Structure formats: C-alpha cells, structure tokens
Amino acid sequence: MKLLEMLFGKPIPEIAPHELNEKLKDKKNFTLIDVRQPEEFKAGHIPGAKLIPLGELNRRLDEIPKNKEIAFICATGNRSSTAARMLARQGYTVFNVRGGMYLWSRALFKRK
Question: How far is Cα 57 from Cα 40, in angstroms, rounded to an integer?
Fold first, then answer.
C-alpha cells in the first residue's frame, strides 16, 4: 500500500449521498463544491452547493475555506475525485461524493 500511496497519494475518502445530506446540515464546518460546467449546474444542483468548474479550481482557491471539510461533486464522481485529490495535496480536508449527482438524485427519489 505504501508504494501505491507514494505513486498516487493517499486514497480520497468518499461519502455516500445520505452522508452528504447529513453533512450539509453543518454549514459552519462543511462546504459542498460542484465542479461541473455552468450549464450542468443550471440544469440541477444541490441547494447550497458552490459552483467552481474543475477547470477554474486552481485559480479560485481563495474561495475555498481551509478550515472546513470540503466535499466535491460532479455528474458521476470522476471530475470531483480529481478536484478532491488536487486540494488534498494542498492540505484541505476533502471528500468525494460517491456516484456524483447521478447517485445523489437516485437516492433522493428513492426516499420520496
């Protein structure tokens, strides 16, 4: 495992949609960042999510608080995993939302 961590860094923790819903209640210590494109965000997003497209992330780091847990979400979890990895290397406490908006919306509709 140490060799893999040396090559790729530590694995990024993932949270499931139901865990995300719990964390969203703690606005003081938690932030959700949506790394999709603006058109995707406009088509539907989680209330309270901040839009920072993946391509803009490096130049908008000043908008991301270092003193909070940060979860990243995208459509399926791929872009958000990249974003979480980038910020984890810079000392942020990060999570990737497993399955992205796809899984989150499925979980949401299952509850209704």
Answer: 16
Count of domains in the chain? Answer: 1
Q: Which domain holds residue 99?
A: 9-65+79-111
What pLDDT score was predicted for residue 81? 95
DSSP helix/strand/coil, 11: coil
Sort strands 30-34 and 50-51 into parallel, antiparallel or unpaired.
parallel
For 12, counting Cβ atoms within 10 Å of its Cβ (0-12 exposed, 13-18 middle, 19+ buried), the class is middle
Q: How far, in Å, CA of 101 to CA of 11, rounded?
A: 21
Q: Which positions are catalytic?
A: 74
Establish if 45 belongs to a structural domain: yes
List Cα–Cα distances, 18 to 22, 43, 54, 98, 101, in angstroms. Answer: 7, 22, 24, 10, 12
pTM, whole model, 2 decimals? 0.88
pLDDT digits (tens, 9 = 90+) for 68-93: 999 999 999 999 999 999 999 999 99
Residue 53 lies in a domain: yes
Residue reference for tokens 């995208």: 74
Q: How far apart (Å, rounded) are the C-alpha atoms in residues 104 and 81?
A: 15
